[in-house]
Each structure stands twice: as structure tokens, then as C-alpha cells.
Amino acid sequence: SDLAREAGLRPVRTTYFNSLLFPVVAAVRFIKAVSGMGDREDDAMPPAGLNRLLTALFSSERHLIGRVPLPAGVSLLMLARKPEAP
Questions:
Q1: What is the pTM (predicted TM-score) of this model?
Q2: How many CA atoms lie within 13 A of 31 on its CB side?
Q3: Does the structure show a pLDDT above 70 at 42?
């Protein structure tokens, strides 16, 4: 929120998203770090079936954002407003 304020914006709401996949992502990143594979990119496209499952999980969160506080997630979302002109 400090960066938003420095940019002249007023933070309204901040929340995590991609929360349902957070435990999986955290586990994969931890395993990569301890196995020495941490420097490998993790943005490769998964197999089609797994990609469909991940897409369904990720997109299902759109119904939760703003309604249910998500305590942790892979990503952070902020809604900020420009101040009104004097």
C-alpha cells in the first residue's frame, strides 16, 4: 500500500488470490529450493489435463474475492482509487 500511496493512489482493498493453489505452489517451490532446482523456471505449460484442472481451480476463486477474506495466496490484488480532483 505504500507504493500505491507514493503513486498518488488511495488503497481501498487488498486481498490475496490464487489461494486454493497456494499449498501446492509453496510445496513445489520449497522442494525446488531444497533440491537445488530453484533456479529453473516454473512457468512451463503443464499437460493439458492438469492445465484444465488448474484453470478450473484458479477461476473458481473469482466467486470468493471480495466476499471471503483469503488469508494467503500466490498473488496479491489491490483496488486503489485516484484522489478526487479539487
A1: 0.65
A2: 7
A3: no
